[in-house]
Design brief:
The chain has 262 residues and is an all-alpha fold. The chain has one domain. The chain has eleven helices and two strands, in the order αααβαααβααααα. A two-stranded parallel ribbon has the order 1-2. α4 packs parallel to α7. The protein starts with 11 loop residues before the first helix and ends with a helix.
Length: 262
């Protein structure tokens, strides 16, 4: 037990009971947010989820303006509209339920980090508590930064490439509702988790697991892994798209180097 703990030792079953209560509270918060998202169907689907499927999305407009300023019109995508179809009778309802759950989970992530902090806090020393509390709080901000990058950049670029790619003009793309939603939720959730790299590095550093020389030693490996991951996430062939995805990942690693112990 740490110097900030209570006078009695907790048994294994006490810890298990605390963990159960923590998971129950997290589940309640996710359920509440899921219900809110579920009953905000018109806004969530019309203004958020399906917004990147149209060439009027803010990212595409920004690319057009960038192309004009740089005299590079190829940056501006041609007008397009991704057609979403449904072929299963119950798919729309269950997709609505599934999307509500995943969005509720994403919105509840900072609270989940808070509950993890409360769970591990009694086992830490006072000095460790101060640093790791800051790390967990910063982790919530980083998560939403990753989610925003995934929504405004990663998913639209991926959707634009895969949704308009054709092996021949005789094959028309009609994207299923379930495929669209699963790609949408997985990409933004993955980006949110990836942005937790600095938080994980800071926590491991404060616990004495890693040091700055270790991260510097594997800097080249991290850059290569960032490029490979970016190529997988956004399989478009242009270097600009690859750079837009890889650069934040590389910066996250560099930021992790700065905040860990020497």
């Amino acid at each position: 037990m740490s110097d900030g703990d209570s006078n009695h030792e907790m048994t294994f079953w006490d810890h298990l009971d605390v963990l159960r209560n923590m998971l129950f509270r997290v589940a309640i918060v996710i359920a509440i947010l899921m219900i809110i998202v579920f009953f905000s169907k018109d806004f969530v689907f019309g203004s958020v989820i399906f917004s990147p499927s149209d060439s009027d999305f803010c990212l595409y407009r920004w690319l057009c303006k960038l192309g004009e300023s740089l005299n590079m019109p190829e940056f501006c995508p041609e007008p397009f509209k991704i057609e979403i179809i449904n072929i299963n009778l119950s798919a729309q309802f269950f997709t609505h339920m599934s999307a509500s759950f995943w969005l509720g989970l994403i919105l509840a992530f900072p609270y989940f980090l808070y509950e993890i902090w409360r769970f591990v806090c009694p086992a830490l020393y006072k000095k460790e508590k101060r640093y790791i509390r800051v790390a967990f709080g910063f982790g919530g901000i980083l998560f939403f930064m990753g989610v925003l990058l995934g929504y405004f950049v990663i998913f639209p670029l991926t959707l634009k490439f895969l949704g308009t790619y054709q092996v021949t003009e005789t094959v028309v793309n009609q994207i299923s509702l379930s495929s669209y939603i699963s790609t949408f939720t997985s990409l933004i959730l993955i980006m949110g988790v990836i942005f937790e790299i600095p938080m994980v590095a800071l926590v491991l550093s404060k616990l004495g697991v890693i040091r700055r020389p270790f991260l510097r030693k594997y800097r080249k490996h991290a850059i290569i892994c960032s490029l490979i991951l970016s190529a997988v996430i956004t399989p478009s062939g242009d270097a600009f798209t690859l750079l837009m995805v890889a650069l934040p990942l590389i910066l996250l690693y560099e930021f992790s180097i700065l905040i860990v112990k020497k």
